[in-house]
């Protein structure tokens, strides 16, 4: 197989990030299967036609059914708002198309499980885009843990902090509506933290959380707008039906203790996505705003030089370093999407399921729902009870 034909649904922020990945990939990964940017789909005909030209798609359509009924499309890439994931993914799999879906996989655990059942039944390949796993510095943290170089892991603490809705006049965009987004900071940002925890530490067994919606009503938007929308205080208002912030504590199956914070109200933090892990032999700290670096501490360093050191994860010893620039030259946010797509393509070449896939999407959703249940009941919830 030399190339694979992509049909993509969505053309905004994530649509651009995915398109960029498909476009850049063949230049840097020439031996990989080539993703052909066949058709892009979106509801607004003018918007999607402009995106097709700007991003480099061969054709566009306003009806996703067109994509899944075409014989010349192999993979359906879904990055439309979260409420569209289930219907499109299920229809695509039933039509024999492989599915690459943005996170969170679904609005609820029940929906996520239904999606998983269909992709399993139909035998198609399925992947969820938890792109931060594919950051070389994160992969270094994983390697240190897997090789036992941090010893027994005691703590995992993670925080994803944004501040784009602190203005009370920021409009009620789709990300603030439960029926479209499923949840707020929890599913949007917390989902990344939970997947990171699963990837690095393992299964979460029990959780207890709390959340808050600081601004309960907002001006209605005039159109479906994104993160940089502006509002008008004189517009009619609607109810915010998602959390602005969700925090929770967790116990992992292997005994690690975890704490998680996802918020859109951390003034000054545009998009701080970080974790710290402490083990018996050492610790690591990752901050996506410095994504090329991992702070590493080893207990067995000589006493007079003990402390966190900054390891640049773009040097020769690290993941993808042979692909990008000469040693020490850094990479960015967009590279995480390219790396994620290489995993999808390698799964085709090796005839296996890519990772993370819908199983991981379901596991993440199970924790998201367990936290919400714990908040509702004001008590600890066993993840396996859901
Ligand atoms: C907006 O909050 C957002 O773009 C998320 O939807 C992404 O998943 C995250 O990576 C960055 O922030």
From TrEMBL:
Ranges annotated as spanning the membrane: none
Gene3D superfamilies on file: Dihydrodipicolinate Reductase, domain 2, NAD(P)-binding Rossmann-like Domain
Superkingdom, taxonomy of origin: Bacteria
Name recorded for this polypeptide: Myo-inositol 2-dehydrogenase
Organism name: Halalkalibacter hemicellulosilyticusJCM 9152
Keyword terms: Oxidoreductase
Domain GFO/IDH/MocA-like oxidoreductase residues, every copy: 140-284
Pfam families with a match to the protein in the record: GFO_IDH_MocA, GFO_IDH_MocA_C3
This protein's record includes keyword Oxidoreductase: yes
Ranges where the Gfo/Idh/MocA-like oxidoreductase N-terminal domain occurs: 4-130
Single annotated GO MF: nucleotide binding
